[in-house]
Structures are given as C-alpha cells and as structure tokens.
Amino acid sequence: MPNRSGIAIRGIEVMAQAHYQPPFTLDGTILSLVAGIGESIGRLSAQPEHANALLLRRINRIRTVQGSLAIEGNTLSEEQITAILDGKRIIAPPKEVQEVRNALAVYEQLDVWKPTSEPHLLAAHALLMKGLLDDAGHYRRSGVGVMQGEQVVHMAPPANRVAKLMRDLLHWLEATDQHPLIASCVFHYEFEFIHPFADGNGRMGRLWQTLILSRWHPLFAHVPVESLVYAHQADYYAAINDSTRLSDCAPFIVFMLTMLRDAIQVSTPQVAPQDTPQVAELLRRIVGEMSREELQATLGLSDRKSFRERYLRPALDAGLISMTLPTKPNSRLQRYCLTELGKQVRGPL
Asked: Over the stretch 236-253, which tens digit does the pLDDT of each residue have?
C-alpha cells in the first residue's frame, strides 16, 4: 500500500489526540453513492424471500473467497473452491488449499464476530491465517513495508504503536455516527494503512468491512464485493495510493462504494440456474454417481453440446452438482453427483 506523506507527524498527532478521528471528507459523490445503495437495499428488503436465496448465498460466498484470495495471488478457481467446500480433494498447492479452507471457515463465522471487538479481530486473523503464519492472531512485532517489485511503497507505523492505533480505530468505529457504508470504508482504509499483522492484512480488511456492513444489513454478508475488487485490482490500489497521498481516504471511500453498488446488482440475478426447467429436470434424474452418457440417456438427449450448455454447466456453476474427479474434468471416468445444496434445492422426490 502506498505511503502517506507526513506519516510520522500524523502518528504523533494521533497518539496525542484524546479522541481519534480518521482523516476523511465527504462530498456529493460519496453521499449520492450512499443514497443509491440505500435505495437498492430498501427495494431488495421489500421483496419476498426468493426460493433461490440459499443457492445465491453459496454462489456469492464462493465468489467472495475466490476474489479476496486472488487479490493476494491465490490461483484456485471457483470450481476448485466449490470442490473444497463440498469436501472433495483437489490437486493444487497445499498453501492455496489451506488459504481457501481458512477463508471459508472465517466467513462462516460472520454471525459470531463483533466488528468493534479486538479479541474477535485477533481470533478472526488466527483462523484466517491458521497453518500459514506462525504469529497468526497476534499483531506484528516488527516493522513492515509494502513492496511493488523492488520498491517500498508504504512503510507502516512502527510495531510498538500498532496495538494503540488499532484500539483507537476500533473505538472510533464503535462511537462514530457516520453511516455504516462510510464507516466501513474508512475502517478498511485505515486498517490497511496501519497494516497491523505480519501477513493477511488485505484479506482481513476486506473481511472486516463485510462484517461491519452485515451488521447494518444482513444482505451484505452475501454480497461478493471482493470479486469485483479483484476485477478492478489496479483501481483498488490506486484509490489507496490517492488516499495516502492526500491524507484523506475519500478516494478509497468512492472506490469501495462504487464496488458495493455494482456488487449488489450482480449478486441478485433475476433468474437462478435452478429456475430453468432443464436444470430442475437434471436434478430430479441424478441417482448416486452418473456419467455424462448415463445422464443424457436418462434425459433422452442426443445432442452433447446442448446437454452441456443447458443442463450440465449451469448446474455445476451453481454448485448443485459436482464432479467425482474435479481436477480431471474430461476424464472418461468422470461421474456427476448431487451436492448437499443440490439435494436441498431438489427436495424429496
């Protein structure tokens, strides 16, 4: 993360302040984004519970984990993450598999963590970095710089100030009267500036913003904003850079609110895969583990391409069915079976 000019001066000022106040200003763009997101949330809340809510939560959680980890260099695909979620073994670097398992476990605990609790923050980091970092669950004990290539682009505050800075930030979050949409963005940026852990800061910052927002409205627990941030990764770092340079996190607030606005739209499709009669029929016909040929035969289909595009692929993408050999999708021994989600969506026969 890029360096903020006057970091030493800012640090002294923060330490001297009785009430910590992160530096940010609000403008018409920010207020307009907040109003627009609020209207979208209001419209969604007024709608009756959709039958595909469970499916959408699963799909969006997989997108969230894949996007957040991809920003940090994890190469696993949504299909591989789905296989891990379903308890299947995949061939992939052990570290990347561990990262996925940890992230899935942490996001499952969103209902437990309290955003303003330091013990919960540390516990979340311990779980997120389990088996990946010796000092998981503890603030860093040494200085840290963020690199771009061979260049240091951000020197975080000294390690001996991290605990106080984090407590100041958490106290501000608890006391602020700012709208949660704004407060969550400010927290996210300041967290990245402090860089409190030896590793996992990006993942934790994005996780904690999701947690803050989910306490305002539960919908945000299942909005895959991380996948959009990954798609706009250069803009993400540019927003951090601009905020640091200006000593004002307004550019980062605008960026994250834009991502949240867009993520709400893409996370609530009007037609989900199980709403199509083709996928619904496929779910009804699967018994145990079946090959592609067996599935086509039981459905009375001869066109392999049509079967793949209208039946098989949508069901796989939605996590309703899974491959018995996920790392060998074209194997002649490949079979398909219902996932737990698929069984719930299908219901009793």
From this structure: 988 998 998 899 999 999
Over residues 83-125, the pLDDT tens digits come to: 898 888 889 999 999 999 999 999 999 999 999 999 999 999 9
Rounded Cα gap, residues 254 and 28, in angstroms: 10
Side-chain half-sphere CA neighbours of 152 within 13 A: 7
Q: Does the structural domain 7-266 have CATH classification 1.10.443.10?
A: no
Question: Going by C-beta distance under 8 Å and a sequence separation of 6 or more, which residues neighbour residue 324?
Answer: 289, 333, 334, 335, 336, 337
| Long-range pairs, 35-43, Cβ under 8 A, ≥24 | 36/261, 37/181, 37/257, 37/260, 37/261, 37/264, 38/181, 40/261, 40/264, 40/265, 41/217, 41/219, 41/264
Q: Is 3 in contact with 155 (CB distance < 8 Å)?
A: yes
Please provide the CATH number assigned to the domain covering 273-346: 1.10.10.1820
**Strand stretches in the chain, DSSP E:** 145-148, 151-155, 321-323, 336-338
* Residue type (1 letter), 105: A
Cα four-point dihedral sign 69, 71, 72, 73:
positive
Equal CATH topology for 7-266 and 273-346: no
Per-residue burial over 159-188, b = 16 or more CB atoms within 10 Å of its CB, e = otherwise:
beebeebbebbbebbeeeebbbbbbbbbbb
Domain extents in the chain: 7-266, 273-346
Answer whether 0.90 is exceeded by the pTM: no
